[in-house]
Every structure is written in C-alpha cells, then in structure tokens.
Amino acid sequence: MWLFPQEREMSQMRERQQQRILPVPKIWIPAAVAISLPVAWIYYREANNLRWFGILHFYYVPIYVPVVFGLVWPCAVAFQLRSVPFDVWIRLRRAWVAIALFALSVFIAAFFIGPEYESFMKDRNERHTEELRRQQEPAEWSRAVEALKSRGVTAFAEPLTQIQRQVLLRYIDEN
C-alpha cells in the first residue's frame, strides 16, 4: 500500500496527532457532576423541609442522574472539541451522539424542571409569608390587648383572628 516507508510513518504520525487532538473526554468528571448535583438538590430540599411535587422524591435519583449526565457530558465534549476544525468535528460520531443526548435530556428535563421550579417558588413564597406574619404577631398581640383593656370583651368583631382568640381566652382565664 505504501510506496515508501516515510509515507507509512507520516500516516501513523497523522493518526497519533489526530488522537491527541481528539481524546475521548474523561467520563468520570461528567458522571461525578451528574451524581452530585441531584443528590445535593435532594439533600437541600430535605434539609430545608421543602415540599416535593411528587411523593417519592428520593426515587427521582435514577431519573435525575441520567438526565443531568445527558446535559453535562455533551458540554464536556463541546469544550473538548472547541479547537477542532468543524469539518473534522462534524464527522465524529461522538459529536452527533452528544448532540442527540443533549436534545433528549433537555426534552426530558423540561418535564421535571417546571414542576420543581413551581414547587420551589411556592415554598419560598409560603416561607416569606410566614416570616412576615411572625414579624407582625407582637404588634397585633399588643393591639388586641389594648382593645380588650379599653373596650372589654366586646372589643373584637367576628370572625376573630387567631391572636384575638388567644388574647380573649387568656383574658377570660385570668378573670
């Protein structure tokens, strides 16, 4: 096939250069990220007692890990191939697999990210409302006590708030 031994050496040298340019991405880095992100998210939600849009939240790990891997590994491939000319890149099966895997993972992730985001925002708003209510409790308590002292038992209009009910029960117990 080769007429001269130099051609064979040149061919082998080109193959080695191309292998050096296009090494297979280290799969353990995207795998570690794909495992750690969902586990960290589940741990965060558990630690903060946040509600889940589903009941079996820890059972989502087998779904989350492949989806996150499908988002992270193509990014690692794209980062690796950033210096490769497009005509070489387009012929690589790895590039096409990465594109297909990324598209599939984005499609699947859309079904989980939306409900997760809504659940997270609902919990955040409820916590904010609860914090505002706790901040207003002392002022409402003192207003209820003052109204009870000045006008007596008939000071409150129906329906009574929780604090008005507590102040009235305390007043009745003390008198």
Notes on the protein architecture:
- The protein has six helices and no strands.
- The protein is mostly helical and 175 residues long.
- The termini are far apart.
- The model has no long low-confidence stretch (mean pLDDT 77).
What layout of secondary structure does this protein have?
Elements: H1 5-21, H2 28-47, H3 61-80, H4 86-89, H5 93-151, H6 162-174
Overall outline: rod-shaped
Helix coverage percent of residues?
Answer: over 70%
Kindly estimate the percentage of residues that lie in beta strands according to DSSP. Answer: under 5%
- Contiguous uncertain segments of 5+ residues: none
- The total count of helices amounts to 6
The average pLDDT value, as a whole number, equals 77
SSE string, helices as H and strands as E: HHHHHH
Summarize the structure.
The protein is mainly alpha-helical and about 180 residues long. It is built from 6 helices and no strands.
Features:
single chain; 175 residues; mainly alpha
